[in-house]
Amino acid sequence: MDHPLNINLVNAPCAAGKTYVALKKIAYAEEVSNQLTILAQPTVELCEESYKQSQSRYKMLVTSKVSSHSFDVASQLTITEDDNAFKQLLSTILTKNKQLRDPDFNETGITIITTHANLINLRLSGFNDLHEWVVVWDEVPGYTIQLPSKIPLTFQYIKDCFEIEDQTGECGLLKVINKKQLEDTLAADEVMNNGYHDFKNVLLADDIVDIHVDSQQYNNFVDLTDDSFSLKSLATLRPQFFGDTRETIIMGANITNSLIYKALFSDADFVKHKTSWEKELRFQKHDGSKVTIYYGYEGRWSQNKANKINIKSETYLQALVDAAANQWKGKQWAYLSNIEKTVKGKKRNQIKLPPLTRAHELPKKPYGFNKYSHIERIASFTALIPHPDFVSLFTAATGISIEEFLLANYYETVYQSLMRGTMRDPDNKNPKEFVLPDKDTADWLASEVFAGAKLVKFDLPDEAPKKSGRPTTGTAANATDRSRKRREKEKNELLKDLHDAQSLDFASYVFAGKFDKTGTPITDVNDVDLFSNQLKTFFDRETDDKHNNDLICPAMMDASRSTETSRGKDNVIAAKHIYLDIDDGDMRHEDFAAMFPKWRMIVYSTFSSTTAKPRWRVIIPTQDIMTAAIYERMAQHINKVLKRKGYHPKKDIDKAGKQGIWKCSGLDLSKLGPTNMMYLPVRNAAHPNE
């Protein structure tokens, strides 16, 4: 029997006390309504701390008389084919519920505390008898499941149990079409069973997990046209993973930035916010007025950038570390870093702290309770840029952009590390200082998390000049050098063209209908206030046919520049202001404006717009005159920001099969160029007030 999904989210800033709220609510429900609860937490240490709190503060039963044993089983053992104690424990509770309970507490519920890994493995093993249980995830679980990079050659014996569906370019969905044959084959052959032991549960769990594969690699392998056993693959959770429960509650900091939320829950009708829990948090947002954020470099931080050499013959990373140590000389601070180098076959942290530096290294996954809550200065040197192979498959499979991925992983990891110190205590009004590698992350924190924070850039040495003489040889070196030179050349050409465009006596064009090939030049666009007022006067007009209206274009055109077109891309001389078409989406113009709070923009509804189905146009004024190439890059950047904020083009939603799950931006991707023609503002005579 299928049970409807019932998922509630608790969006909580880090250190707002969500675990304490959860334990309090669970204890009350356990006592009052005999509730059966599973509390899943990221680490064993957190489970142990919650168990102590449940006993000392809330006097919770926690699996009755076998609470200590059950807790050890639930939190420390990993589910495998041969050792499934957690699964057995749940089965025992379900079938012999009354026998497990202490006679003195026979009217109370039961709570099991376990790890994320155990609960995920339980679900992958096919256990779905949780219909009476409330499952609480403390911290958002991972959206992806790691799969082996190589598959056994014995896959040839079971390849007929699978097929590839929904192939979209490089990515396909691997589906089991004969589950019984697959199970029987794996069970009957020890070699087969051992070969697929680590991930066969994922293969068999296609009702709750999607497996994405590189279509070309997969087809080459099953057809034996390739000697390689490598396969780019990725497993992602489906919404049904959180089903088969009485209720699922997911708690997390900045939960709307998480990959699970963006991929599965952002616009799902079975997801709600558990406001009764959120209201009991210690605070709803951070006070950034006492925060100073120091950063080192422009652009995105990565392992490669960290290892660059500056003019002082030190790495970018070491220069940043030295700057932090100098800023906090004699003071206590903590840092997070995952940047390593290999020395004699062993990976070692690349950070060298100056003598007498009072710095503590934070654990790699600093969740929850910790011993650093007295520290007011924290640095994050970590770099979590994923491998390009993973990125290409991930974006193709999910429709989530690399920017959204970084927001959900890198930015959130940095945020969690900074929250290990005194920032956890809302009553602590002392100044806090953070050090970050890059301006992008610093800007995000100052604008989205620590509102009011002060940004300060370190004065760090520049990159060392390239060595003279013949460059390094070799395929990899040549390819990298060619790619760098190409990007540098493109950038210089764009800047030169942009500079040259500023000398133009610019005019946009208005066309008297779609068949007007030459148009009439107008210079009002160069004065934004005049241009805006002119558009307002157009909106006072009414018509019963939109085709009686004129069209406006952001480009300055020259019909003689091409023998094939008169107002196509080849006819564009330059452009000014960015024009966007937004129809039939979930995004309101207020939502759009909120994403670009510092931009001035002109918004008006179209002839066919109604209150029920709003359609609107945006004109974003630009100070500079743009070339066609720069115009297109600006428009594409806006599309990327919309996707990062959770609004996707309809084409991407259809491609990823996320109808009803992702929000639609309504942005017309076919009109992101400077030849975009938009009707001037006008009222529809049939409904002039809409």
Question: Care to describe what's here?
Answer:
The protein has 22 helices and 32 strands. A hairpin with an 8-residue loop joins strand 20 and strand 21. It folds into four domains: 177 residues, Rossmann fold (3-Layer(aba) Sandwich); 82 residues, no CATH class; 167 residues, 3-Layer(aba) Sandwich (Rossmann fold); 177 residues, no CATH class. The chain is α/β, with parallel strands linked by helices and 690 residues long. The radius of gyration is 29 Å and the shape is globular. The strands form nine sheets. The chain has a six-stranded parallel β-sheet with strand order 3-2-4-10-1-11. A six-stranded parallel β-sheet has the order 16-13-17-18-12-19, with helices on both faces. Helix content is 33%, strand content 21%.
Give the topology.
Blueprint: E1 7-11, H1 18-33, E2 36-41, H2 44-56, H3 67-76, H4 85-95, H5 97-100, E3 110-115, H6 116-124, E4 130-138, E5 144-145, E6 162-168, E7 171-176, H7 179-188, H8 190-195, H9 200-204, E8 209-214, H10 215-222, E9 233-237, E10 245-252, H11 259-265, E11 271-273, H12 275-278, E12 291-297, H13 303-306, H14 316-327, E13 332-336, E14 340-343, E15 346-349, E16 358-361, E17 377-380, H15 388-398, H16 402-418, E18 432-438, H17 439-449, E19 454-457, H18 475-501, E20 508-511, E21 520-522, H19 528-538, E22 542-543, E23 551-553, E24 555-557, E25 572-575, E26 578-583, H20 589-595, E27 602-605, E28 615-620, H21 628-644, E29 647-648, H22 650-656, E30 663-664, E31 678-679, E32 683-684
Parallel strand pairs: 1-10, 1-11, 2-3, 2-4, 4-10, 12-18, 12-19, 13-16, 13-17, 17-18, 22-32, 29-30
Antiparallel strand pairs: 5-9, 6-7, 7-8, 8-9, 14-15, 20-21, 20-23, 23-31, 24-25, 26-28, 27-28
